Amino acid sequence: MTVNGPDAKSGRARSGGAGWVLVLNSGSSSVKYQLIDMADGSRQAAGLVERIGERTSRLVHTGHGGDGRRPQRRETEEPFPDHTAALKAVAAELAADGMGLDSPRLAAIGHRVVHGGTRFTDPALIDDEVLAEIERLVPLAPLHNPANLTGIRTALALRPALPQVAVFDTAFHATMPEHAWRYAVDTATADRHRIRRYGFHGTSHAFVSRRTAGLLGRDIGEVNVIVLHLGNGASAAAVAGGRCVETSMGLTPLEGLVMGTRSGDIDPAVVFHLARVAGMTTGEIDELLNKRSGLAGLCGDNDMREIRRRIEAGGPDGERARLAFDIYIHRLRKYIGAYAVVLGRVDAIAFTAGVGENDPQVRRAAVAGLDQTIGAALDTERNAESSTRARLISPEYARVAVAVVPTDEELEIAAQTYELVTR
Ligand SMILES: Nc1ncnc2c1ncn2[C@@H]1O[C@H](COP(=O)(O)OP(=O)(O)O)[C@@H](O)[C@H]1O
Ligand SMILES: CC(=O)OP(=O)(O)O
Ligand SMILES: [Mg+2]
């Protein structure tokens, strides 16, 4: 396959050998990255920097120099004070493998940007104006957009002429109808302050709903899917014929499901009560609901593996973990029920992300008894199989299929980036 690289200034295609896309996913304390060859989707390098800003940051890099040598894994423990330092170290790792940011094969850098507001319903080629708009959206995603911006600025400083593309978590949800995205709050106030439901994890919901249609051997335009993205952050989406019609996250990634450290849905009056009765500041309440709630707030652990281990060990500690698990599952089932009604007809329920892909007990509890209501059922053996393949885990007779689909946000971001710069 011949690939056309982008012209650095205009972002338009020109002939040449450039066919790699570097994807950067900058989180609040981490950077994940992948270097993908768009000719065949193969990973040339991948890695993760964790605990940025703490005393013991760690960089794990895997790459093989792009010449098909056996992949090599390198691990560095070094304190990275901020994202800029972390990204410079990532650039150095890539350069050591002969795949640095100056490589002529690099066609573009794709960035995950969490909040795109109402403006960005498609990927955007980054320029000063796009940067300013992402900056303007910081108050709507204070945990995510600043890290995304640092990632973009550092990459621009290292390779100013290379096209860089922002791919937004919110974009896929732009098709929600107004009755789904509008909160029942005074319209003038809501509009003035851009208060509405935006939805997140859209890159994952788009990728997984398409893959699920593929598993069913049907066109995405004719299937209705409920996607359950259960990672540290978690959200559900109702996708009708490839278009999102409803999702569980709202103005920010705090609404909806019970997550690792976020509460998901609560009565908004809890906030006033904490301010009036407990004397907490808005900053303290924000921190409570985003970082000290969810599974962590309920039982002290946000990792589902640890929660399962505690439940199996039993005792009072296991009881606390069991209650956290039950609350998590109860919320998830409420959303499955609601989205089945919103969609009218469901063809499949798809589980994805860290918990959804790896935890058969969560899947079993989420779907238990649904053959009696919406017609979804699990095949016990298929559900228990440990595999990294996308696969159906329901019996043939089930009216509603159940799927496990490993999400690949990086590949989706790379594809959208490459599409834009070679268009
Ligand atoms: N084998 C497993 N069994 C159950 N849960 C798992 C397993 N592996 C990972 N997880 C869960 O997945 C979470 C991370 O999911 P991930 O999608 O990588 O999250 P994020 O991208 O939000 O960091 C972990 O916190 C843990 O709860
Ligand atoms: C938007 C969001 O919640 O992202 P993450 O799951 O990566 O925290
Ligand atoms: Mg994730």
From TrEMBL:
Assigned keywords, A-Z: ATP-binding, Cytoplasm, Kinase, Magnesium, Metal-binding, Nucleotide-binding, Transferase
InterPro entries assigned to the protein according to its UniProt record, in alphabetical order: Ac/propionate_kinase (IPR004372), Aliphatic_acid_kin_short-chain (IPR000890), Aliphatic_acid_kinase_CS (IPR023865), ATPase_NBD (IPR043129)
Active site positions: 169
Cofactor: binding comment: Mg(2+). Can also accept Mn(2+).
Residues under site feature: Transition state stabilizer: 201, 262
GO terms of biological process kind: acetate metabolic process; acetyl-CoA biosynthetic process
GO cellular component: cytoplasm
Cofactor: Mg(2+); Mn(2+)
UniProt-annotated binding residues for substrate: 112
A single MF term (Gene Ontology): acetate kinase activity
UniProt keyword Cytoplasm present: yes
SUPFAM superfamilies from the UniProt entry: Actin-like ATPase domain
Binding annotation for Mg(2+): 25, 409
Pathway note: Metabolic intermediate biosynthesis; acetyl-CoA biosynthesis; acetyl-CoA from acetate: step 1/2
Enzyme class: transferase
Record bears the keyword rRNA-binding: no
Basic and acidic residues: bias regions: 64-79
Function in brief: Catalyzes the formation of acetyl phosphate from acetate and ATP. Can also catalyze the reverse reaction.
Subunit structure: Homodimer.
PANTHER family: ACETATE KINASE (PTHR21060), ACETATE KINASE-RELATED (PTHR21060:SF15)
Family to which the UniProt record says this protein belongs: Belongs to the acetokinase family.
Annotated protein name in UniProt: Acetate kinase
Organism: Streptomyces aidingensis
Phylogenetic lineage: Bacteria, Bacillati, Actinomycetota, Actinomycetes, Kitasatosporales
